[in-house]
Design a protein that fits this description.
Layout (H helix, E strand, L loop, with lengths): L3 E3 L3 H11 L5 H19 L5 E7 L4 E7 L3 E8 L6 H5 L6 E2 L1 E6 L6 E7 L7 E6 L2 E2 L3 H12 L4 E9 L1 H10 L4 E7 L2 E2 L5 E2 L5 H6 L3
Parallel strand pairs: 1-11, 4-5, 4-6, 4-8, 8-10, 9-10, 10-11
Antiparallel strand pairs: 2-3, 6-7, 12-13
Length: 209
């Protein structure tokens, strides 16, 4: 069963408060999302495996550690997820980046895949799917379906704010996926928006309406 991790680190909570503020402009919003993504990436990679190596320091030969195991892939859900990618790459610049694009069917209101581009070695990578919001869970569920259909077997999901309803949907449909959240908010309102949330993350990242 996948686990849900809610980060309570003071720096993450402080920066998230500014992100929530409706008076925070596009430039600062974008920079803060990037910074929170970096801080979250530090935690989400805590269980990455290590292997022993020998290294020659300026003083002597030493036993040391280096990353082992699968390579990492970062997959933003278009378009808002793009705002979190650089924050992860700041720590892991060798990670490959894929993309999943979804749109909402106007009649069924369900997400429909329109674009998927992933690294060629999908089966050999640990993937982190990123999106600032986990509201109803529809987009996250479909994005993870898209990865699994193409052979991905190791997936984590990372977002800034989540509604309990979306978390429950994710746990039910993708019980093998761990969920990493900066803040678990109160609820969804009647329009499906996260309360208190942070507004439309895509519009605030890119300065659109």
């Amino acid at each position: 069963m996948g686990k849900v991790y809610v980060f309570d680190h003071p720096l993450i909570q402080h920066k998230l408060t500014i992100i929530r503020d409706k008076e925070t402009g596009t430039k600062e919003f974008r920079e803060l999302v990037d910074e929170v993504a970096t801080l979250m990436a530090f935690e989400i990679t805590r269980d990455m495996p290590l292997q022993d190596v020998q290294v020659q320091t300026p003083v002597c030969e030493a036993n040391a550690k280096t990353l082992a195991g699968k390579k990492l892939g970062v997959v933003p859900i278009l378009r808002a997820g793009i705002g979190m990618v650089d924050g992860i790459l700041n720590l892991i610049p060798a990670a490959k980046v894929g993309h999943v694009g979804l749109y909402r069917d106007p009649e069924t209101l369900t997400p429909v895949e329109y674009y998927v581009k992933l690294p060629s070695d999908v089966e050999e990578r640990d993937f982190i799917v990123v999106d600032p919001m986990l509201a109803t869970g529809g987009s996250a569920v479909e994005a993870i379906h898209s990865l699994k259909k193409r052979g991905a077997t190791s997936i984590k999901f990372m977002c800034l704010v989540a509604a309990p309803e979306g978390v429950e949907v994710m746990k039910e449909i993708h019980p093998d996926v761990d969920i990493y959240i900066a803040a678990l908010d109160e609820k969804l309102n009647e329009k499906g928006y996260i309360v208190p949330g942070l507004g439309d993350a895509g519009d605030r990242l890119f300065g659109t309406k």
